[in-house]
Amino acid sequence: MPDEDKHPLPTGYQLSALDPVYRETPWVPLDRLRSEDPVHHDQQLGRYFLTRGQEVTELIKNRDLNADPRKANEGSFSRTLYGANSKELSILMLDDPEHKRQRTLVQKAFNKRSVDALLPRIEEIANRLADDIAAQDGEFDFVATFGSPLPTTVMAELLGINPDDRKDFRRWSLGCMLALNPFRTPEQTALYEESTTVLAAYLAREVDIRRSKPSDDLITRLAQAEEEGDSLTTQDIVLLIRLLLIAGNSTTTDMLTAGVAQLLKNPDQLAKFRARPDLHANAMDEILRVEPPVSQVLRSAHEDMQVHDKQIKRRHHSHVAIRRAF
Ligand code: HEM
User: Does ligand 1 have an atom closer than 6 angstroms to the CB of 114?
Assistant: First the structure.
């Protein structure tokens, strides 16, 4: 009997956080697929599951593939997870020409230069949080005291959220992140729906205020962005900010937390990093490779395509697993 029959390849929910092995040690099933079936046809969840650097790079770089889940076939993982909410897709799940339109306008307001300008303030916030931790005795919860407040505070400042509203804003932001949990409980779904509705109304009001009374913040710059007579609608801006809250907060929290955990588990690397803080870019690259906060990107094929040993049919969905693929 072939080894694969005695020990079937991991597939379906075994390649999801519902599975205890995948949850605790995702690299075990991923390593197995990478060596035995790098372009795996997961029939249970209706997707191709790619784990090897060569094919992962090929798909990520292929600009002809679709990110829009509405273009994936019926019953596919991507469409089931996101397609139902089809009127409210953010830039992340749009394809050209709408993706290009929004991206051109957004880049006028939000780009490397605007983020660099914020760096001294980010350092100030990080130092204040670190000082608060140093002032405490003994153990502390890294996520609660640093990993979570750092990005949510920076994001609130970037957007120009009124300090009186920040507590509510943080609660709604955390509620919106439940979008990423396909297995949320009914209570979590209610919290998610309430947060998205209330936040959308709040942000739409803020955009209207900035249109008549500009301020020095990202919401104003997005409202003012213009290209050849085109500009972002209030709905475009609301969806974009909701994406920034989901894409920017939990990713940063997870990266900081995974980084601290990895360094604590590898004291030799921690000692090296302490002696050579100038190696921070290498450290970040390695943390993102080993424990990436976004461990996959989702794409569907716009026409039949051959990837390694599999023929992926038009509209079929691929789950491109970045974690340790390189
Ligand atoms: C460690 C932190 C982060 C990681 C690992 C990360 C990862 C990613 C990945 C893999 C994508 C591409 C997804 C795809 O192609 O399907 C993406 C897109 C995006 N991310 Fe992040 N991200 C991080 C932080 C942030 C932050 C801080 C923001 C904003 C404040 C942000 C905003 C976005 C946006 C707007 C997109 C969509 C871009 C587009 O479609 O043109 N991300 N991110």
Answer: no
pLDDT digits (tens, 9 = 90+) for 293-313: 999 999 999 999 999 999 999
The pair phi, psi for residue 49, each rounded to 5°, is -120, 110
Ligand 1 atom showing the smallest separation from residue 243 Cα: 35
> What span, in angstroms and rounded, lies between the C-alpha atoms of 300 and 105?
26
Whether 12 lines ligand 1, by a CB cut-off of 6 Å, is: no
pLDDT at 142 exceeding the cut of 90: yes
Domains of the chain: 1-93+299-315 (no CATH), 96-265 (1.10.630.10)
Distance CA 268, CA 261 (A): 13
Q: What confidence category does residue 101 fall into, taking pLDDT thresholds of 50, 70 and 90?
A: very high
Q: What are phi and psi of 318, to 5 degrees?
A: -120, 135
Residue nearest to atom 37 of ligand 1 (CA): 92
